Amino acid sequence: MKRSKVYLRDNGILHTLLGLETESDLRGHPVFGASWEVFALEQIIDQYPGWVASHYRTSTGVELDLILEKGRRRLAFEFKASSAPDVTRGFHQAITDLQPEHTYIVAPVEQPYSIGKNVTIHPPWSK
């Protein structure tokens, strides 16, 4: 089921309002994960012009952060602020529900690497 999700898409304003001046300030703040998610989301959406973006969440809490669709193509994205991201059972259930062409876990890693069939951990700055 597609649901709306609201993002404050300007992390600069958020960081300024919170007095976060350095990367160290940000990494030690509870807003770090949400800030990473918005940053990564912006990078991905920018790389897929013309794709329709949505968020997936079921009534049981199964969720994926971003679904991009164009015609019959569907890609799924989960954003993790960890360089060694873990996924939940709900992540796998969402993939089963949606059957995306490929699923990406977008994380602060240098190079992409596969963790399963059609699932890749990937940095946010390249397709």
Architecture overview:
This protein has helices at 11-17, 23-27, 32-47, 89-98; strands at 2-3, 52-57, 63-70, 73-79, 102-106, 113-116, 119-122. The longest helix is centred in the N-terminal third of the chain and has 16 residues, at 32-47. A 7-stranded mixed sheet has the order 1-2-3-4-5-7-6. Strand 6 (113-116) and strand 7 (119-122) form a beta hairpin. The chain has 127 residues and is of the alpha/beta class. The protein has one domain: Trna Endonuclease, Chain: A, domain 1. It has 4 helices and 7 strands. 30% of the residues lie in helices and 28% in strands.
* Strand content range: 25-35%
Give the overall shape. Answer: globular
**How many helices does DSSP assign?**
4
CATH architecture: 3-Layer(aba) Sandwich
Mean pLDDT: 85
Q: How many structural domains in the coordinates?
A: 1
Could you describe the largest sheet, including whether it forms a barrel? 7 strands, mixed
End-to-end separation: 26 Å
Low-confidence stretches: none
* Gyration radius, in Å: 15 Å
Number of strands: 7
Backbone structural class:
alpha/beta
What percentage of residues falls in helices of 4 or more residues? Answer: 25-40%
Brief synopsis:
The chain is an alpha/beta fold. 30% of the residues lie in helices and 28% in strands. It has four helices and seven strands; from the N terminus they run E-H-H-H-E-E-E-H-E-E-E.
